Amino acid sequence: MLSIAAIEISRCPWQQLRIMGGSAVNIPDALHQMLGAATPADCEDAYWKLENRVVVQGQLFEAAQFVVPVLLAALLEPRPSHVTIGVLELLLQIVLGESHEDEVALGAPDLGDKCRERARQGLWVLYGELMRGNRESAREVIEAIELDSTRLDAFLKEAASKN
C-alpha cells in the first residue's frame, strides 16, 4: 500500500529549503523515522530531529510549511498512538510559531500564517482525531487554527457526550 505521507514527503524540494543551521536535506529521513517509529523512544528521537530544526522555541524556518501537509497526511493512515501524538505535538508547535528572525531577514515574515493556513486545509482530519479520542492533542491544534469557534464548541460538546 502506498503511503500518503510518503508521497507528500517525496513531493518537496527539501534540499532547497531552510532549517535551523542550513538545508532541510535530512528532514525526509527524520519524518520517515518518526512516522514509522515502532516505539515511543524511537518516535521521540525522530521528533527532536524535527522540532529542533524546522521549529525552534516557536521560531519557524522555511521547511516548516512543507512539514505541515506531511503531518496531516500521516493522520490519514493507521499509526501507533505514540506516533499520532508525536505528529499532533509537532503540528501544534509549528502552528503556534512565527518566522525566525533569519527568515524575516530573507523575506519570509509570514511563515506562521502560511503554516496555519496549510493546517486549515486539513481541519477535518484534525476533527477526526478529536472524535477518535486524541482530544487534548487535537483540540490544541484546532484551537490554534480554527476560525469558527462555534464549530469547535459543537464538536467538543459532542465528544464530551460520548464519554
Can you give a write-up of this model?
By secondary structure, the protein is mostly helical. It has one domain. It is built from ten helices and five strands. The strands form two sheets. The protein has a three-stranded mixed β-sheet with strand order 3-4-5. It has a two-stranded antiparallel sheet with strand order 1-2. Strand 3 and strand 4 form a beta hairpin. Helix 4 runs antiparallel to helix 5. The N and C termini lie far apart (34 Å). The model has no long low-confidence stretch (mean pLDDT 94).
Mean pLDDT: 94
Through-space gap between termini = 34 Å
SSE ordering: HEEHHEEHHEHHHHH
Number of domains: 1
> Which overall shape is indicated by the principal axes computed on the Cα atoms?
globular
**How helical, in percent, are the residues?**
55-70%
The largest sheet, given as strand count, sense and whether it forms a barrel, is:
3 strands, mixed
Q: Which class of secondary structure composition applies to the elements?
A: mainly alpha
Number of helices: 10
Question: How many DSSP-defined strands?
Answer: 5
Low-confidence runs (pLDDT<50, min 5 residues)? none
